[in-house]
Amino acid sequence: MRALIVDRSVPGGLRVGEVSEPVPAPNQALVRVTATSLNYGEVTQGIETAPEGTVLGWDAAGVVVQAAADGSGPSVGTPVVTLEESGGWAEVRAVRTGWIGVVPERAEPSAISTIPVAAGTALRALHRIGPVLGRRILVTGATGGVGRYAVQLARLGGAHVIASTGDPAKHGEALRALGAHEVVSGPARVDGGLDGVLDMVGGPQLVEAFDQLGAKGTLVAVGHSSGDGESFPFGAMFSGPERDDRSIVTFMLLFCDGLGRDLVWLARQVADGVLSPEITWRGGWNDVSEAVSALVERRLHGKAVLDLA
């Protein structure tokens, strides 16, 4: 079967090649992939560190072509959205059934393929904060794939949403259209008293964002796109009036239980137009180097999708 395989000798580090079809474990279904979305982490760290010839890819939408041998999961012919640690950049992938979500027949595969990492991470990060109805929530790195879903989901949950981006003049209108009540150029521009932060950037921005939390506020460290470490000044962790019981939380999506249920719900919201997939780049097999370059160079805001059918 065809797949995008790691080959660091070519532009973008990926080329189309032939590989053997995967052999599924008893709790895995085989899915014919129709569309896959690319994530910043896998096109930077993944391509850079994976052995040559590896088939990467976390996100994929497609159709079940072989049901799991243990009887779990959807039947043959079912349209699905899938998440796995690899294999999404191929014509067929093996997926554990707990990480498969059945999608509506009317759903468009390219839109659905954006869900697993981006929307799934945003949803679980909001869960870490707790109920957000009436709460003030800051989303840093709001123009990225996770950030755009986070803005929409926080607004859907009833939060007052503040979106942070390096260029509010350029991206403010789009972020407000997604649900942001305010758009700022960084956490230091926020007026304190935040109930929650979804931080996609790390480094100094995380430190600044933590300083804006109010009492019982939670910062969820989702991404580390800055590539910088965090250095907290003396006193940053002191408690006091309106600053007591603050916390920083980390998590990894692939370690979460119940992902299949999340994928089903998110797919319905995208199919119904409640959530926008925010696709800003779309192409085919042979265009992947263009997408990789745009992601690595930070020229792409939103999601990149490859149509593999």
From TrEMBL:
This is Oxidoreductase. GO terms for molecular function: oxidoreductase activity. Pfam families: ADH_N (PF08240), ADH_zinc_N (PF00107). Coiled coil: none annotated. Residues 9-306 form the Enoyl reductase (ER) domain. It comes from Acrocarpospora pleiomorpha. SUPFAM superfamilies: GroES-like, NAD(P)-binding Rossmann-fold domains. It comes from the Bacteria.
